[in-house]
Amino acid sequence: MGQIASSFSGEYRFPVYRPLDVGRNEIRLLTARSPSTGKDVVEYNLDYVSLDDYTPAYAKFLSQGGRELPTFFRSIVWENLTIRHEYPEMADEMWKGMPPSIRNESLRQACSGEEFSGANRWMWGDFAALSYEWGNPKSLSKIVVDDIGVSVTRNLADALKHIQRVCRSRSENFRGSDGQRIWVDALCINQLDIAERNLQVKRMNQIYSDAGRVFIWTGLAWETAKEFSDIMSYLATSALEINLDVEREQPREAKTVTKWSQLTLENVIWRDGMRNLMARTYFSRLWIIQEIVLANSTAEVFFGDFSCTLTTVLTGYDLIKLSFSLFAKNLSPAEAASMLADYSNISSLMGLVRVRYERFDSQRLPPLATLMAAGRLAKQLDPRDKVYALVGLMEPGLQDHVHPDYDPSATLEQVYHQFIVSVVQYTKHLDLIYQGAANPIRNQSLPTWVPDWSIPLRYTDDPGDCCFYANSRASGDTVHDFIQAEEPTHLICKAFKFDELYSLACSSSPWTDHDEHDCHPCTVKPPTPKTTNGKDLALDSTLTLGSSGHTTVYGEDVNDMLSAFWSTISMGYMPRSENEVAAFFQSVPWFNRSEDAQKVDFFSIMDRFQQCNKEIFIAGNRNMASLFPPLSLPLLHLEVDSAAYFVACLDMSLLRNRKFVTTKKGYFGMAPLMAEPTDEIFVVAGCTVPLLLRPVGNERYHLVGECYVQGIMEGEAVKDDSEWDRITLV
């Protein structure tokens, strides 16, 4: 979407369109037809159909409770009802597997008549929707639409050719239709009509939700694709059970029970197949977030003439992580480094998996922060799509405030600014304004409280920064009362200053300008940590927090100090008590100085953090080095329980682009990389986390970013007598 019309600049020939009848809820569909004799070119008719043209059976289904079902499950329940007469046992098993809140027995009883057996939803049949990437706009192929030769990208032509061939081999014509019908955005939306494109973008959620199937095209097959497809088909019917012994007296024991015991990382065809599939550029597309999340359980992932279900791919993704946590302890350092590299290749799917699972588990739309964080992992042609491509997954009330506009006059700054204002007004919360805020290359024409989602991920904070704080409530139960400022670039907030920074540790991010995939050890001398008076902590050992009369709020007991420190480093994310968090971190051998350790990015980050900050004094005569484990532990020599925790930490990489800080009141915290000694910590109404602000005069502040502060994340700083003031973010 977005820039496709201009991308082809005259080389792209479109079908002949007539306007869509909005009053009839019309869409266009490609209906496959048999190719002309001797032609190896896919051919289609372009049909206009109404999504309101229901069959009597489907109209009854909707009126008896089907309309109230979440769109994610509506087509699944309908399919179950239409196969009951022909496949009763299969239908019963499908029904039992649905979430209890979806199993509407009165609906099932009302729709048990013969008229539902094999019924279509629409009078004209049914349809599938294609999810794919445009591909290289300079690499074109021809298809035929309404007897007109139309140029499309080679990737799209490959998708249509292979999917049509597979469907014909299965005799799949989508019940009652006279041919395979499929919706493809490049051809079913008039890309030259900006007004139509703006309207159709907001309808894509309905299209992908209503589609009887979603075909996901990832590209052509590889050498062992057939064997991989067979393995994935077996996985789809296998039972995967995880038995965890959580008794405190015994180490946790985890094991997998599958019908095929070799489904582990040791199976080269499966492991490399998953890696090959997940490394495909399709999974980096922004638009697939909406398309895949909205797809029902019959979504099918194609690679050439082979395929597997999307559910199986996501199960395989989970099994990759599980296999790592179970078998990592048996690997050599070199094998562990290689496995971690494999894992990182598919980690970009995490945001997508998180969004889809949240929707499946809760039957609700994903939280906005989760959605936008997932979008930051993806790529697109038009940076305005960082908002527009996700509209279909937002709450309906918020959707009403977002109006896609692909006119060239709609600037990126206007789109992002208007969107965040709409979010703040609609939600009455501020938890989106700090997403990616602390960034040296952000668009300087944007106010600091307007996120710049166009920045590539390599320059941003951790992609899940908003997601880590799902259970935080630093401002208690307060909400943001939007006040229209005289200057549109200003945001007026109710807040109080909680504390000021006292010392800042060195960052654990690389200090060289090497590429993000360069894993060579960093040898450049790191910057020196500072206190707010500018003195050099690392060189002047007499200037300590203790010697200056400074103490912490966590007490002098070593165990309490240890727990507070490591809970801060993990930003409260670890799902255990503080003592268990501390014990875990001390068991992990971050500081094996071998080349293998340096090749693993997370080890390198932790190693740099320890090496550069070990002489910083935390309180009294206790320095940071005393809180770290010894250097002699072998790499990845962990119990299974710790290995699982390690994988969770690997997912987070919390220290990337953050600094450990102490405050004047004696708190520990994690601040953005751009934090400076003069920055101040505020509790802001309607924001679940403290914000780090930089004074610019006249009660105006620049937003530096979010700031984790150990001990106030659950509202401890908010008192009945707290004095809230009005401040302005600019």
From TrEMBL:
Pfam families: HET, Het-6_barrel
Heterokaryon incompatibility domain sequence ranges: 127-291
InterPro entries with a match to the protein in the record: HET, HetReg/Transcr_Mod
Name of the molecule in the record: HET-domain-containing protein
Origin species: Hyaloscypha variabilis (strain UAMH 11265 / GT02V1 / F)
